[in-house]
Structure formats: C-alpha cells, structure tokens
## 1
Amino acid sequence: MGEQREHQWERTDRGAVNDFAHEIANHNGPRCTVCGFFFCENCYPQGWQRTCPGPPPEGMAWDWVGDGAGHPPEDDELETYRVG
Ligand SMILES: [Zn+2]
Ligand SMILES: [Zn+2]
C-alpha cells in the first residue's frame, strides 16, 4: 500500500547509527539489521534515502554488493542469493 519502510540501522552502544557497520578498505557506512542493506556514505550518500525492502525470503539474502564499494543495485535490480 505504498508504505515507506525505513531501515533499522545497526547502532553503537551509545545508540548512534554505526557508520562503520560496513567497512571495505576506506569505504564505510551503516548497515540495516532487517534487510542487510549497506552502503558507503562517502561515495553513495543517497543510500540514506533508500527504503527498506524488509527481510529476505527464508534461507536467502538480498544481494546488495553491487560494485562492492558502495554502489548497491537499484530496487528493481535487487536479487537474492541462497545462504547457509
Ligand atoms: Zn533495511
Ligand atoms: Zn566509498
């Protein structure tokens, strides 16, 4: 019904969004505890505007990797992969 869902970001012990939940080399940013979305807040600040697709299907994970450095796939390109 067009509901805008917000990511539930990993938090630090002090309750702030953890900007280093995701870190690859000198790329870092937050990560969602629900869908696993992560992005580099330096290269991809628009990541803050993305909505949360919710949890992936059982036994699967959303494939957010994209180029690996912080440019995740667009919502209509988002796929899942099997985990475990
Ligand atoms: Zn999310
Ligand atoms: Zn970056």
## 2
Amino acid sequence: MSGDQPRNQPEDVNLQSADGRAERLSRLLGQDLVLAGPEVTRYCRDWHGDVTTGAVAVIRPRTTQDVSAAVRAVAELGLSLVPQGGNTGLVLGATPDDPAGQVVISLERMTAIRRLDADDFSAVVEAGAILSDFKDKVEAAGLYFPLSLGAQGSCRIGGNVSTNAGGINVLRYGMTRELVLGLEVVLPDGSVFNGLSTLRKDNRGLDLKQLFIGAEGTLGIITAVSVKLMPAPDQVATALVGLNALSDAITLYRRARRDCCDLMSAFEFMPPVAFTLAREAMPDLVMPIRGDYPAYVLMEISGSGLVDIEGLMQRFLEGVMEDGLVADGVVATSKAQARSLWLFREGMNEGQARRGPHLRTDVSVPLSKLPAFVEQAEAAVMERLPDCLCVSYGHVGDGNVHLNVLPPSGLSAEEIAARIYTAKSAINAVLYSFDGSISAEHGIGRLKKAEFLARLPDTQARLLAAIKQAVDPNLIMNPGCQLNYRTD
Ligand SMILES: Cc1cc2nc3c(=O)[nH]c(=O)nc-3n(C[C@H](O)[C@H](O)[C@H](O)COP(=O)(O)OP(=O)(O)OC[C@H]3O[C@@H](n4cnc5c(N)ncnc54)[C@H](O)[C@@H]3O)c2cc1C
C-alpha cells in the first residue's frame, strides 16, 4: 500500500453518515488515497455537465495492491464501487447514482507503461494512462497504437477497454477488443486476475479476459492492459470530399475498400451543418471546400514502408471524380492541413455541446442500410418535431451513426426533455425496424439501461445474470450500470 500508512484504530466514527464512512475508508487505506468533501464533486459530473451527483468518497490508488485493499475496505463497509477513467463516457457509466452508498475509484494515478517491446509489437500499460499520452510514447518508439477518438486527450486506457471503445480507425484495426492481448483485473473479492499475457495465440479454453472488455466496470477493476502495437504509418493521406447524396457515401466506401488495398484507416461522413457547428466552437477554422453538398466524407489512407500512399489517394480521387461519384474534394498537402480537416469533425461535437442539452445517439445499422436509416429516422423526427435540428454523422465504414437532435434555443428544461424523449422514441422505432443497435460504441451505462433491458432476450438475460452472480455475488461493482439488473 502506498501513501500514508493505514491506521487500524478502534472504531470511533459514525458509520451511519457518509462523512463517517469516508473517514473510516481514509483510516483503512491511508489519507493519501481517499478524497472526501467538496473535492468529490468533480468526479461526479458527466462529461457534458448535464448530470452532477455525489459519492461517499473518491479513492485514488497508486498500485494494484491499493486497488485490492480499496475493494476489500469498501465491501467491509457495505458500500459499492464505481470505477472511473477519464469520465468521458457519454452514458453515465462512471457517474455514481447513489451518493450515500457509492465510492468512486479513479485510476488517474496509475499511468505507467510497464513494458514496451518493439520486437514483440506489444506494450503493457496501466489502466489510468491517458490514451493520447500512451499513443505519443508508443510513437516515440517508432510504433503505433491505432485506437483514435475525439476524447483521446482525456479518456484512459482502462475506460477504453471497459467500454470496448471504437473511434475512427475501427474499419482497419477493429474495436478495442481486437487490440487487447491481456488484462490485469482486481475482482470484487479483492483477488487479482493476472492475465497480462502478450501471446497472440492462446487457445487454452475460454478466453476469460473477454468478460471484462465492455463490462463497464460491473465485474471488476481493470488495473493494467497488454495491447498489440502496429508499425507507425509514416505516410498518411487525408481528403475531404463533397457528395451529391448520402447514398453515394456507401458506393464510395465500397470502391475505396477495393481500390485502396485495405489501406483505408478512416471514412467518416458529415452533414453540411457540421461546418457551421464546428466554426461555432472554433471560429478560426477556414472552409476547406467551396460549394454546398448534401453530404461530405472525410477519409484517410495510411501505410508504412514501400507503398506510395499519396499517389494512391490521388489516383483514387481522380477515378471517382471522373465517374461523377465525388462532386468536389480537397487533399491535405501538409500535416497541419490534415489536422485542420479533422478539426471540423472534432469541432462539430463541441459546437453541439455549446447549443445546450440535446439528444445524442450512437446507433448502428448494417452498413448498406445506413443512408436509408438516416433518411427515415430524420424524417420521423422532423414530422414530430419540426422546430428541431437533426445532425447525423459518424463512422460510415462501421455502419455507426450519431443521429443527434438539437432543440431550438429559448425552451424550458421541461420542453427540452419532452423533445428529447419524442426524438429518441421516433429514432428507436426506425432503428429497430432496421435490426440496429442502440449502442454502437458508447456502451449502456445508466443512460441506456432501461432500453437495453426492455429488449434483452430471456436467454441472454439469464446468461448475463449468471455471470454477474458468479463474479460479483454481493453486487459491489458499479450498481445501476449495465449488467446489474437481476440476479435471481
Ligand atoms: C468528444 C468525445 C468523443 C468521443 N468519441 C468516441 C468515439 O469515437 N468512439 C467511442 O467508442 N467512444 C467515444 N467517446 C466516448 C468515450 O470517450 C469512450 O467511451 C471512452 O472509452 C471512455 O473512456 P474513459 O476513460 O473516459 O472512461 P469513463 O467514462 O471514466 O468510464 C466508462 C465506463 O468504464 C468503466 N471504467 C472506467 N475505467 C475502468 C477500469 N479501469 N476498470 C473497470 N471499469 C472502468 C466506468 O465505470 C464506466 O462504466 C467520445 C467521448 C467524447 C466526450
């Protein structure tokens, strides 16, 4: 155990009060590890600032042993734990919902890279490392960790694994699950599941680490992760193209996969309003394309070694423009220009947040059905809520759409909530008719739990309940979130 040594003093605190329980935790674990009082609030607010709750305390371990001790102490007090990484998850998975009964455990102090092995193309990193810091260190060693998302300056590896994060490179490298080789996890009884292998092939029975990937902290606390690394792509070509219809994006995607020899690393679609929203957040951004088009695609091809990426992008775009599939386009000629193209994609998120509370979705449909889904779902929303703005964008190569609905300004909180409810119902009705998923990337958390459970088939519910019961029989881990529904 690190920090102040625990003082095993006789019990002289009132365990009925939250303050007393925080004090007891502090005595069991050492003051250095435990925050209480007003400092707790910043760990209890979601990323958008829409929801602020509270917790008995926040535990900030420095080592895996600290995490084990924390789990035991919390269990002894009859409390439960909400694990937290960067708190950028957008579904309230890391935001406690029982201030008197829950303790946040933040991994923010466990940030070390335990091993980076260039010959093995692998690394072992602690769960609290910020994704972009880890990527930078890997790149300094001439390698590449491909997970890339808008929140990478704040989200942490343990959170990425616990949500099975996606991001812009999924079409080439897969979701986080496909990048994980092994895990170290503190289980709800305080014991440690040590599975930090870097083996690529290991078929010795069930692959238990998979249980914790995407579990959103409901089965244990991930303390370290071993991951696959790739050769650093030393050539990257980025292009923004304007299309005459969203359906052309699917044709373009099919063609790009064929023509670009699977070297495509990103393929994002954006509506025209993306540029307005991005410039509301970042007024210095300069419009990269003249003319207005109904849909835009931001695509990236990348590679290392002997391939000619720039030439490939040039030839590809010439071909699709000649065939009339692309109306106009711009290819970044420098890293700075490529970065500014990506800023439109990132800035549009910020621009939406600035317009106030709105419906955010993260849905997926079969790739080929994406344009029809967007068209029908937007029409269903506009029919019911003509004063709202639909903003659909996302990772088209994965069939993943964020169909967000922004209410007009000047409404009361109740009017906004009513519009969000109506829009969500309209979108989900269309989504289910396409056999889609309500969560492509972000998980279930607390926000989507009711919808998740409402459509969970009995057999899956039984299996999930059995797993929960076997791993966390006392329901210590993240109650209120995802899996924690019934154990009977
Ligand atoms: C601007 C923006 C862009 C985003 N873009 C994407 C995107 O493109 N793709 C995507 O997939 N997501 C995206 N997200 C969502 C979010 O960044 C991801 O879900 C990310 O993986 C969450 O990581 P985190 O460290 O912030 O986790 P947190 O929000 O802290 O936690 C998420 C969940 O994991 C659990 N958890 C956290 N750490 C641990 C741990 N060590 N052990 C066990 N459980 C743990 C928490 O209890 C919670 O249930 C975006 C978010 C923002 C704000």
